[in-house]
Amino acid sequence: MNFKSLDQNIYIFLCFILLILTNSHFTYEESLVFGARDGFDYFTIANEFGNIPQETLSYHKAWRFIIPSLVGFVSKFFDLNTFLTFRIFAIIGSLSAIYIFNSILKKLKLEKSHIFFLSLIFIFNPYLFRYFIANPTMLNDLIFVNSALLITLSYIERDKRLFYVGLLLGLLTRQNAIFYLISLVLIKIIFKNNSFFKFKDLIYSIILTLLIFFINNNFANLYTEYNDAYSFTNRFNLLTFNYSINEFIVYNLFLLIIVIPIFAYVFIERKIFLKEIIKSEFYFLIFFIAFFICSIAYVNGPNMTGKNLMRLCNLVYPLIILIIVHPFKLNKNRNIGFKYIYILLIFLWSLHPTFSSISILRLF
Fold it and tell me: pTM of the predicted model, to two decimals?
């Protein structure tokens, strides 16, 4: 594949178009059945914008009211169908995440071919953009993916404004954004005065977190009936390990679906392991964020969290790619034959039985 003959961004955009053309596009009712049950509350907030019935929402979904409210406002202003508006925002959010991820890889000075193939892995993850395009009411999660990418880019660009935009988007979309703040505290403790983040950044981040949490909590209290299941103690009971070793192993094996393509690519293309990378503040930052977000799925084990491990890991999937790839210097212009085969394999890997319109079984 000659990246000089056609702009690389066009190749990447065409891959995204291919994803859309081969994706499932559920109706609102179908989305509630096929993986977006949480979307009921988000859709209600948007569809009933300005007239939300009292005590009709789940507390932690009502807490994330800003983005669905924005969708509702746009839908009413332009007289658009609410679900269609969610779908438009989902496509814009997907393109935004791809663009930011691509910018990060360029800033890390990866070769063009590596940028393309890593972008391919990101785009064709069968549980990421396919999920959001099929189930656009889960827009909050997609924007959270963007928030993690903006925080990552902010460090590379040395741009504090990007950091605060990323932190704000994270706080508006998911309670998990508290782990951005915790990660910031930890790297400040570890790197002290050598840290990119100053003490005032920590103070500003704490104030912003408290402010957004206060606003979101007050809204949630207005439109939900409080349930003790959402208390801090019950939702973060770290001592509840009510599952066996076998359940734990099986639970984690499910993750191999999304990480094997990354490890395979690095294994083929690796040249040198750069151990100084894993000692850098940047690496600590993305590792802490990914670790804490993914770890939420272990709080109450497989019985309570179900498939949330996959869902939570996909919220930081681009960071997981960076964590695996960044410590390695990759070869240049090698294994061309493998790469053509790899493109086909990645596409076939993306054909999720629910979120793809093509069944891989019908192809053979």
Answer: 0.92
| Helix H or strand E segment including 317 | helix 317-325
| Helix, strand, or coil (residue 98) | helix
Per DSSP, what are the bridge partners of residue 270? Answer: 330
Does residue 137 contact residue 31 with C-beta atoms inside 8 Å? yes
Query: Which backbone phi and psi does 271 adopt, to 5 degrees?
Result: -120, -55
**What gap in Å lies between CA 351 and CA 353, rounded to an integer?**
6
Write down the residue that tokens 């990323």 correspond to.
Answer: 166
Annotate 43-65 with DSSP letters as a single string: HHHHHTTT-PPTT-S-HHHHTT-
Q: Which helix (H) or strand (E) holds 81?
A: none
Output Rg (C-alpha) for the chain, integer angstroms: 21
CA distances from 128 to 87, 90, 93, 150, 316 (A): 15, 11, 12, 18, 10
User: 314 vs 42, 127, 330, CA distance in Å?
Assistant: 20, 7, 24
DSSP assignment of 221-277: HHHS---GGGSHHHHT-TT---S-HHHHHHHHHTTHHHHHHHHHHHHHHEEEE-TTG
Short-list 217, 216, 183, CA closest to 202: 183
Cα distance between residue 359 and residue 184, in whole Å: 43
Determine the residue type at 152: T
Distant-in-sequence, close-in-space partners of 75: CB < 8 Å, separation ≥ 6? 46, 47, 49, 81, 82, 84, 85
Q: Which helix (H) or strand (E) holds 360?
A: none
Give the model's pLDDT for residue 362.
53
Asked whether the beta carbons of 46 and 69 are under 8 A apart, the reply is yes
Instruction: Using the predicted structure, report yes or no on whether residue 209 has a pLDDT greater than 90.
Output: yes
| Distance from C-alpha of 110 to C-alpha of 32, rounded to nearest angstrom | 40
The β-bridge partners of 330 are 270
Secondary structure (3-state) at 328: strand
Q: Write down the pLDDT at residue 305.
A: 57
Contacts of 187 (CB under 8 A, 6+ apart): 195, 197, 281, 284, 285, 288
- Calculate the CA 237 to chain-centre distance: 24
- At 97 the pLDDT is 98
Q: Phi/psi at 334 (nearest 5 deg)?
A: -120, 170
